[in-house]
Specification:
Layout (H helix, E strand, L loop, with lengths): L2 H13 L5 E12 L9 E17 L4 E6 L4 E6 L10 H15 L7 E7 L9 H16 L6 H15 L7 H8 L4 E6 L5 E5 L4 E7 L7 H19 L9 H7 L5 H25 L3 H17 L6 H11 L4 E6 L7 E7 L3 H16 L4 E5 L6 E4 L1
Parallel strand pairs: 3-5
Antiparallel strand pairs: 1-2, 1-12, 2-5, 2-6, 3-4, 6-7, 8-10, 8-11, 9-10
The protein binds adenosine-5'-diphosphate (ADP) and magnesium ion.
Length: about 375
């Protein structure tokens, strides 16, 4: 059963009728541009073909009644008396989006429906942004406001920051709102301007989940962020985005070795990310793959956010003739890597990478081929 059928079937059983509509919003994987977002830099994600869906119909009152298939739960709240964040986190994403949209002056109507999807939760593919954007889309379908992908992304990011207390950047919401079929989206995290490029012909992206998580992420993230801010202050600029390769080459000796390495990652990663789009526009899988390999080395050696499991799975992929290049993706210390591979024979590539990684680590990986999908949208009727 597809995810769409899953929410539709439950909707019929629950409400005795067809839903008025079904909406979806995707998870994402970042192809290149890691730890650049909070430096006002560039990221280059694509929306994956796993998504969160809501089958719904409008309500005459101002209440939202949501049934979660994945959490096996059912919750109701009123739009003019939003409940404070609870222990039941999943509903807080819906309440948070309602709060954020209303804060921004959107006039919301109530709805009732069924929520479910197949973005793995907590794997770094941003099931949270998918849930937020599909919620925003649900409100859009029953209310009477204009849909603007950037405004919706900002509203959902504010919900996650202020309502859920998670200090994420804008990437996840922006790509879940504005993703394009078969294309990746370069996002300028300062201006929020976007530019797309197609995946190279005859290639696919493969998500290599190491099936490892480490608790280090939050503290290391905050430390890296502070180091980047200190380096920017040293150069007298707002963010490391404003330091180009020439300036860095001239003045890098002024920085202590660790800070120099952190800054070098961000500065070179921004360059690689811009070059990655040029490579994609040229249909040049080989160059794109090399940029991904260089990105991993920079994250491992200069930014020091990789892990033995990530290094192992990336090495397994890069050693394979079917792979153009692989790198860790996301904040690091575990989670997923992403590989650009030839579309032909990708199943045997997965089998070889899986065996190699199992041999090296004893862990069981989760390997998924994914296409690039559209951002938040109505898929029915
Ligand atoms: P991720 O890396 O997947 O974004 P987060 O911790 O940021 O991980 O968000 C995961 C949380 O989002 C879950 O704990 C849950 O509260 C909520 N969530 C995500 N997807 C769903 C879903 N399909 N149904 C219900 N809640 C979901
Ligand atoms: Mg998240």
């Amino acid at each position: 059963m597809t995810q769409r059928e899953r929410v539709q079937t439950r909707f019929r059983a629950e409400f005795g009728d067809e839903p008025a509509c079904i909406v979806r919003a995707p998870g994402r994987v970042n192809l290149i541009g890691e730890h650049t977002d909070y430096n006002d830099g560039f990221v280059f994600p694509m929306a994956i073909d796993r998504a969160t869906y809501i089958a719904l119909r409008p309500r005459a009152d101002n209440k939202v009644l949501a049934i979660s298939l994945d959490m096996d739960d059912r919750r109701e709240f009123a739009l003019d008396a939003l409940p404070s964040p609870t222990e039941t986190k999943w509903i807080d994403y819906l309440v948070g989006v309602a709060w954020s949209l209303q804060e921004r002056g959107y006039d919301l109507r109530g709805w009732e429906g069924v929520v479910g999807g197949d973005v793995p939760i907590g794997s770094g593919l941003s099931s949270s942004a998918a849930l937020e954007l599909t919620t925003a889309r649900a409100f859009y379908e029953v209310s009477a406001f204009e849909w603007d992908a950037r405004s919706m992304a900002l509203a959902c990011q504010a919900a996650e920051n202020a309502w859920l207390g998670v200090q994420c950047g804008i990437m996840d919401q922006m790509i879940s709102a504005a993703g394009l079929r078969d294309r990746a989206l370069l996002i300028d995290c300062r201006s929020l301007e976007t530019a797309s490029a197609p995946l190279p012909p005859d290639t696919v992206m493969v998500i290599l989940d190491t099936n490892t998580r480490r608790g280090l992420v939050d503290s290391a993230y905050n430390e890296r962020r502070a180091q980047c801010e200190a380096a920017a202050r040293h150069f007298g600029v707002k963010a490391l985005r404003d330091v180009d390769g020439d300036l860095f080459a001239r003045r890098k000796q002024e920085l202590a070795p660790v800070m120099r390495a952190r800054a070098r990652h961000v500065i070179t990663e921004n360059e690689r990310t811009l070059r990655a789009r040029a490579a994609m526009l040229a249909g040049d899988a080989a160059t794109l793959g090399q940029l991904m390999i260089a990105s991993h080395i920079s994250l491992r050696d200069d930014f020091e956010v990789s892990s033995p499991a990530l290094d192992a799975i990336v090495a397994c992929a890069n050693a394979d003739a079917a792979c153009y290049g692989a790198r860790m993706t996301g904040a690091g210390f575990g989670g997923c890597a992403v590989a650009l591979a030839g579309a032909d024979g990708v199943e045997s590539f997965l089998a070889r990478v899986g065996a190699c990684y199992r041999d090296a680590t004893g862990n069981e990986p989760i390997l998924t081929v994914t296409g690039a999908s559209r951002g938040a949208e109505k898929i029915y009727p």
